[in-house]
Design goal:
The chain is built from seven helices and two strands, in the order αααβαβααα. By secondary structure, it is mainly alpha-helical. It is elongated, with a radius of gyration of 34 Å.
């Protein structure tokens, strides 16, 4: 006899329990036995839970990126302001005082204002460039790095041989790790 349909509240409760079990490292078979549900239903629910986790992770990542972009904008504005100030002439007040006992120097007691022309501090431009690079990276504007797969494969085979390992096994393990990492997205 088919199991009765779950209410939305029951379904959400199952999702919470399944999420807790997944975090604990439980298998789908163990979760199914624990909840007295079919493995097929648990498999479906696990997909829903993982999809929600991924959506939450993307949302958190988007929020983090937005906050970082805002901070970068503030820092760039401050760096530009500092650059502009570093380009303006600097004014220095100088006072010459007389040495006691020297009548000629006493007459030279003067105050003068000197203006020094400045070219600007290049450290501010370097900071702005670094901030722009970070911003482009956060926004994904940089081109991806090209990798010569054949060269990488040859290097991996060479390292495996140097370590006394079977190159085919090492490459197979690398491919399985890559597959797992791309599935986790």
């Amino acid at each position: 006899m088919p199991r009765p349909q779950r209410t939305p509240q029951q379904r959400e409760g199952h999702y919470r329990i399944i999420a807790e079990c997944l975090v604990k490292g439980w298998s789908q078979n163990r979760i199914a036995a624990y909840l007295e549900m079919s493995v097929g239903q648990i498999s479906h629910d696990v997909k829903v839970v993982k999809s929600r986790w991924q959506a939450e992770r993307h949302e958190l990542t988007d929020q983090y990126v937005s906050a970082q972009i805002l901070e970068i904008a503030i820092l760039k504005e401050q760096a530009w302001d500092a650059w502009v100030r570093s380009c303006k002439p600097r004014e220095k007040n100088m006072t010459r005082k007389a040495v006691p006992g020297n009548e000629e120097i006493k007459a030279l007691l003067t105050a003068e204002l000197r203006k020094e022309e400045r070219d600007g501090n290049p450290a501010f431009l370097a900071e702005i460039r670094g901030l722009m690079e970070r911003q482009a990276k956060l926004l994904g504007l940089d081109r991806p790095t090209r990798i010569d797969v054949n060269l990488l494969r040859a290097q991996a085979e060479e390292y495996a041989r140097e370590l006394g390992l079977d190159p085919a096994e090492v490459l197979a393990e690398a491919q399985s790790i890559l597959k797992i990492s791309t599935e986790r997205g």
